Amino acid sequence: MAETNVVVHADAKVLAQAAAARLVVKLIDAQAARGFAGIVLTGGRIAAAVYEAVNDLPARDAVDWSRVDVWWGDERFLPSGDPDRNETQAREALLDSLPLDPARIHAMPPSDGPDGNDPEAAAARYAQALAAAAKPGTAQLPHFDVLMLGVGEDGHVASIFPEHPGAYETRVVSAVRGSPKPPPVRVTLTLPTINTAEEVWLMAAGPEKADAVGMAMAGGGPVQVPASGVHGVERTLWLLDRAAAAEVAPRLRSLR
Ligand SMILES: O=C(O)[C@H](O)[C@@H](O)[C@H](O)[C@H](O)COP(=O)(O)O
């Protein structure tokens, strides 16, 4: 049965360093088992801190980066190279320093990409890229060993916002308009897609996240609190700092 674990670290820095170490080990294990690994990145401050911490970790060289597929859980729909794109952030913090295979870096299309400023077409294109990478004859999706998510103060994950149409979406990838977090137009994996990942890691640091994390863990509905609607097939892992864990009931803080 899938397990949910909650790990609370002293502060955001330690959380980022521990998540980085965990990620490197997970990728080494996935490659030992299957020869390759698939990760799904996100945006935001805690994600950037984790990418920088992976970059600083000597053990990162134990991963065969040429056999890692890199996907994104969501993207801010902006022109290629825009500093606010999640892709740009991840490339600068980590990806540009790794010997990755460029063909295995699967960024979501930018707003000046092949579909122009059409986020619906960009979402459909990304769904096609995912399907093309899936094992022939199986699902529409490749294997995701780890899918990382930040958690918003309102309980959003990826670009799935509370009470937004995206919280009900059943397609593989969807366009988002009117996001409460800038920029307003985005592309995101949907809840059913996120929930195919082997492990889903929800990462949050700081007191401003405490209410959202507490509500998600107390079982708020996925439409009201999207963070409560994501689960890994094998494991859901909450990686929190003490401030973000302030509203989590003590009985939920240990392994379940
Ligand atoms: O657009 C983005 O940045 C993300 O995809 C978003 O889902 C993010 O992960 C959370 O808002 C948490 O961000 P912070 O870690 O910066 O609070």
The pLDDT mean sits at 95
Largest sheet report: 6 strands, parallel
Quote the CATH topology of the domain at 10-158. Rossmann fold
Uncertain segments are none
Q: Going across the major beta sheet, what is the strand order?
A: 1-9-8-5-2-3
Identify every distinct bound molecule in the structure, by name, code or SMILES. Answer: 6-phosphogluconic acid
Structural class: alpha/beta
Strand content: 15-25%
Radius of gyration: 17 Å
Number of helices: 7
Order of helices and strands: EHEHEEHHEEEHEHEH
Description of the molecule:
There is one protein chain. The chain is of the alpha/beta class and 256 residues long. 29% of the residues lie in helices and 18% in strands. A 6-stranded parallel beta sheet has the order 1-9-8-5-2-3. Strand 2, helix 2 and strand 3 form a beta-alpha-beta unit. The chain is globular and about 50 Å long.
Outline of the structure:
The protein has seven helices and nine strands, in the order βαβαββααβββαβαβα. With 256 residues, the protein is α/β, with parallel strands linked by helices. The chain has a domain at 10-158: 3-Layer(aba) Sandwich (Rossmann fold).
